[in-house]
Amino acid sequence: MEIYQYEVKGQKYYRLKAYLGIDPHTGKKKSVTRSKFKTKKAAKLAFNKLLIQFEDNKLEPSQRNEKLKFKDVYDEWITSYKETVRNSTYINTISAFKNHILPVFADQYINTITISEIQKTVNRWFKADSKVNCKKWANFVASVFNFAIRMGYYKGLNPAKSITLPKMPEIPGEKKPNFYTQKELNKFLDSLSKDEKVFNRYVFFRLLGFSGMRKGEILAIEWKDVDFSKRYVRINKSVSVLSTSKDKLNPPKTKAGYRAIPLDPKTINLLQQWKIRCKEYKLMVGQYLSETDAVFEGRSGKFMNPNSPQKWLKKALETSGTHQITLHGFRKSYCTALVSAGVPIKEVQRRMGHDDIKTTLDVYSFVTHDQIEKANRQFEKYISL
């Protein structure tokens, strides 16, 4: 152990340098350096405390003088993170780190990464056509630092929480909403119904737009989940894709995701037609349709590839004459239709599978042109009394 005096701006301090022993965590020799002790006695007391902690195997990670790189902390964090999210979320997170975050920070010691460096990186992501994702990636970086702080690998405030996130500029003009009115939805479906070769796609988008199911839920439904006599479909599972490109069944996204959704007569009729076609195809290849078969089967597995519906949508939009929406937009269209039809909000929440009614109110409080006109008529009628 060495204790020696030094000065900073005329103020005298003591610095401690000492060998503690062999670290049982790494098998390597461990030494420590501590500074800014006002007295020699304080330095000795600090050494004795460190030595006791070390011998009791209680030395905090930040006290071991370990130089952990960002990738080291990320590897620990992602293992814990995996157990807290759905498989599809985990895969998307892995991809974000592999392609965007680790190329920047992986080999840097986590204690040397500055606020300025993170800010510049986020700005670069924003400018490189990643305006939508840069906030999500910045939050991922913050999560790794939060983990490092909790584990004692990093001392101080989270630098990723001190940056300023760039904002998307407001574009003047009318912005098309990510949902269809009932008229627009029917126009989209009519364009698909004219082509017998894509009958399965027509049925898929009809069911999607008239049930409000999530993509993973609709891909997971089996024939046994469809009650043709009572006209409803049961939601009790969801499909995602593993990193090995294999199907995986998960529970619904939320506890409220377990639900039964009523279906209109036309949608039920289309599903019956589709079931007959599936039976006929199975017989042609020497098989029988099972009630445990997926309603929308994949070519190489029981369930359709979750990426296929997006390709179908892109193709359908080319000839539908309707504005572009996402797959999730069909779910929003269903919710908007329920609200427009005057369905009580609690029933809307149940059908959408939301745990919290706030989600139903905040995320799906869309106002259609018809609703605006109805509100105007009601207001005009009131003021004319």
Automatic annotation (TrEMBL):
Keywords: DNA integration, DNA recombination, DNA-binding. Coiled coil: none annotated. The keyword Transmembrane does not apply. Residues 175-377 form the Tyr recombinase domain. InterPro entries: AP2-like_int_N, DNA_brk_join_enz, Integrase-like_cat_sf, Integrase_catalytic, Integrase_recombinase_N, Integrase_SAM-like_N, Phage_Integrase. The keyword DNA-binding applies. Belongs to the 'phage' integrase family. This is Site-specific integrase.
